[in-house]
Amino acid sequence: MADPARNLAPEVHLPDATGHFGAFGGRFVSETLMPALEELDEAWRKYLKDPDFLAELDRDLTHFVGRPSPLYVAENLTRQMGGAKIVLKREDLNHTGAHKINNTIGQGLLARAMGKKRVIAETGAGQHGVASATVAARLGMDCVVYMGADDVKRQAINVYRMKLLGAEVVSVTAGSRTLKDALNEAMRDWVTNVDDTFYILGTVAGPHPYPAMVRDFNAVVGREARAQMLEEFGTLPKALVACVGGGSNAIGLFHPFIEDSEVEMIGVEAAGRGLSGLEHAASLCAGRVGVLHGSRTYLLDDDAGQIRHTHSVSAGLDYPGVGPEHAWLKDSGRARYVGISDEEALAAFHALTRSEGIMPALESAHAIAYGMKLAAELPSDEIVLVNLSGRGDKDIHTVADLEGIEF
């Protein structure tokens, strides 16, 4: 196991002024987008220190989102595993059913403060799309959500939710017809309509300042969890476990714990049908460094340097890159990253549902699966804190199809 404190101390306040996390991050975009990113960076830095903006954000997180989300001791699952206590951070209880609403509330308020009338978003599992459509409805903004055609099919319930909320959902048929291609189309829209449009990016990827800005809005998860652990258990957990696609829920949990070197941080990627083949979405476990969607990070490409198709049973993890802060955490040794297969995630989906009466999103089921493994290896006086990033209602058709069940 890596020393979690290695190379940490001088760099915990990253990114630097140019948006770099060590060798990762930055801003690799066309000249047309540079003014928009500069405008966004200036606004983010301004409003992050504005007491009125922060007070409204806090009110919305409390009264609209329903924060703080509780910690929940999974007693039955803990007994089954026979080791450390498994504790869940219940982001599935947020309004709209996932952690995504934390970030979209922040970016929506920022868009309004900047005078934008239209928001766009990309989505894989639909959770970010639903959260963006929800915020746009509340703030009276036009909303367009880009979604890969395959994801439109496997997340039909969330597509309908977005439409009910007044959003236009654009089905993207290019490329692999998943999240990567949806993000490409959203970028194209932003370049074309930058004067009146705010791009609500759904994860800690993309050009600076998105990785840092999305992290800061999602870090409420980790701040709450850290305070709740000390209040309810009198100690910090032995380990944090969270799933990683682009990486927003994991960074949101990890960031406030970075200086707690005794707390191990573990990101769980989608190993799909196995890391030894090509049918997975594990950029950190099995990828290499390159540039994707405006920043330098770990990604999955072929020998010709082309981004390759990925696979995961979970639409939200089916992305060929990862946020640059995760790339830095991996190389610095402060966090480690592991893979969980489709089969293991599905088993964890059923295990949590049947043992605790909590149906996790398939994304979250990856974290549950590794949390169960880790808990079994640790003594009973330790705590493994797993981020339950979203609820599984949206995934029941995917699970049913895999199990040959027709409604």
From TrEMBL:
SUPFAM superfamilies: Tryptophan synthase beta subunit-like PLP-dependent enzymes (SSF53686)
Known catalytic reactions: (1S,2R)-1-C-(indol-3-yl)glycerol 3-phosphate + L-serine = D-glyceraldehyde 3-phosphate + L-tryptophan + H2O
Enzyme class: lyase
InterPro entries given in the database record: Trp_synth_b_CS, Trp_synth_beta, Trp_synth_beta/beta-like, TrpB-like_PALP, TrpB-like_PALP_sf
Domain Tryptophan synthase beta chain-like PALP: 66-390
Oligomeric form and interacting partners: Tetramer of two alpha and two beta chains.
Family: Belongs to the TrpB family.
Name under which the protein is recorded: Tryptophan synthase beta chain
Organism of origin: Wenzhouxiangella marina
